[in-house]
Amino acid sequence: MTQTKTTQPGSEQELKHPQDHLLRSDRLPHIWCATCGIGTVLKCFIEAIDRSKIPYDDIAIVSGIGCTGRVAGYVKLDSYHTTHGRAIPFATGLKLANRRLKVVVFSGDGDLSAIGGNHLIHAARRNMDITVVCVNNFIYGMTGGQAAPTTPGTAVTSTTPWGAFEPAFNLPQLLEACGASYVARWTSLHVRRLTKSFTEALLKKGFSFVEAIAPCSTLYARRNRLGSGYDLMKFYHDHSEIRHGADVNEVDIGFQDKITVGKFIDRDRPTWLELNDQQHEATLGEKYYRHAETIAAAAEADAAAPPTGTAEKTQDGGKDSGKDGGKNGGKDDSKEGSHA
Amino acid sequence: MRYWRVPLDADQIKIPQGEIHLLVDRCKGCEFCVEFCPRGVLVMSSEYNPKGYHYPEVAHPELCVDCDLCEVICPDFAIFCLPKTEEVNDGAS
After folding, report:
1. A14 to chain B: which residues are within 8 Å by CB?
2. Nearest CA in chain B to A41
């Protein structure tokens, strides 16, 4: 009864998990607690990357601090682990420097909505072309279970030992009001729908936001006497209600109350990059060119062909690459159509 | 399985067979795969892995239909399901 079993050498060890090609498997098992939901959300996300058929070189993952922030260290993609709350500004910078990239911010509720709250609001307002995945476990997990802006009323945390009383953020409502293009919410139990939502969000032009509700067994469930993440998963099973296109004003979450999930917002707005180009092409005309793309195009030309270009040609290359960028956008749209 | 009407192509449909593989070292014993398997293929083992967690084991391999739900819901990347090919061929021949 007490003997331990390891993976048999020669039999199972040679088998690799189907998602090990996108995981730094030497870092596994990961640090997340038993019955934590972040691993499931990450798995759905990796599946969505494969389904969206975006080349791996064109994806960058940016994480903030926190349990969910560790995601950047576990994916075998270009990733960056930023300071607390600053994942979205870093992702915005990446997107501006290289428009070809699909930049994904993968972070927790405290990191995105409290410390990085203003960044979230303004990235949504600008409709910056990034995807934000917010794993919401209603609490600050890594720092010891303090109350977060998403902690629902009467929940016990280490900073609210007699129960929280502040009204909580309703993230879909916040993002809808700020102007996000795509807003969805699922729990870590809805694995298939969450994967589909991630795929749609990755292929969506503009600011796409997916909130994934995940159990925190060690702090949220234990302090509130809710059992473990296993019991919370069963709670999600019994108490979540799928309502696509629901009124976002009515989807706030109470303590151990009904959870409304679904795709709430899917709309098209001009992105920041489009508006930027449009405004400056209108006012500056021929003088306007994209500096970062000019450099990238010159580097690509240097790598592909023997260097023959002059300064003038380089500038032309920059404009061409701009057109290519537009074409790529078109390709993305067609991809989206085919996936739908 | 009982049908309210036998499908017209019932003789052509093969129920897929899956084979479950476990990476025992990664398991943290959350029991999600045991709880959410729609066919009741898995049970928790009474043994421990090197980290001291009970891990699942396959109790009814013949019931697995390769739905991959255990693979998708596992937070620890510790279980996966591959379609079983040999058995299907044996059945057809």
Report:
1. none
2. B75
Q: In chain B, what is the straight-line distance between the N-terminal and C-terminal CA atoms, in Å?
A: 23
CB pair distance less than 8 Å for B72 and A234? no
Tokens at residue B34, please? Answer: 């045991």
Domains of chain B: 22-85 (3.30.70.20)
Ordered by where they begin, the domains of chain A are 20-266 (3.40.50.970), 289-339 (no CATH)
CB atoms within 10 A of CB A227: 16
Cα angle A271-A277-A282, degrees, rounded to a multiple of 5 = 130
Question: pLDDT tens digit string along B24-37?
Answer: 999 999 999 999 99
Predicted confidence (pLDDT) per residue in A102-143, tens digit: 999 999 999 999 999 999 999 999 999 999 999 999 999 899
Tell me the DSSP string of A44-91: HHHHHHHHHT--GGGEEEEE-SSTGGGHHHHBSSEEEE-STT-HHHHH
Mean pLDDT of B64-75: 92
